[in-house]
Amino acid sequence: MPERANAVTMRGNPLTLVGDEVKVGDKAPDFELLSNDLAPVKLSSYAGKVVVIVSVPSLDTPVCDLETRKFNQEAGRLSERVAVLAVSMDLPFAQKRWCGAAGVSNVTTLSDHREAAFGAAYGLLIKELRLLARAVIVVDPGGRIRYVELVKEIAEEPNYEAALKAVNESLAG
Asked: Which listed residue (22, 33, 41, 64) is catalytic?
């Protein structure tokens, strides 16, 4: 499996990402993750929708918490033709607890803890930590990637405005 050394940093320390890097224009790789009730969820189950994939290291960290809450607020204002998925290596039970405590109901949290297949398929698996890098990916209704932001310093937030612009452009066709 390909590796990209120094692809991201955590508090300035370089980290290696494992897996194939996805790019704008690529067909989005399908994946199977676990929902909060342990049911399998695939990207293909959202066919025909714009899908915002928010990849975070752990919901129980300050930046991930803030980011997911912001996307939850935005998701409440978006069309029903948009699904926002927050993916982490957190256990489904922890994700469910976090969503309840944070009042998050517009974002679907999904766990990649079992096989790290999402992380590997999207090139976001941090080799040294077995966590996911911070990234935002927008997939159009046809399954093509229209936006990718890999946040170089994972202790920083993504560019929300750019991601939302890509969502609106994908909805417009």
From this structure: 64
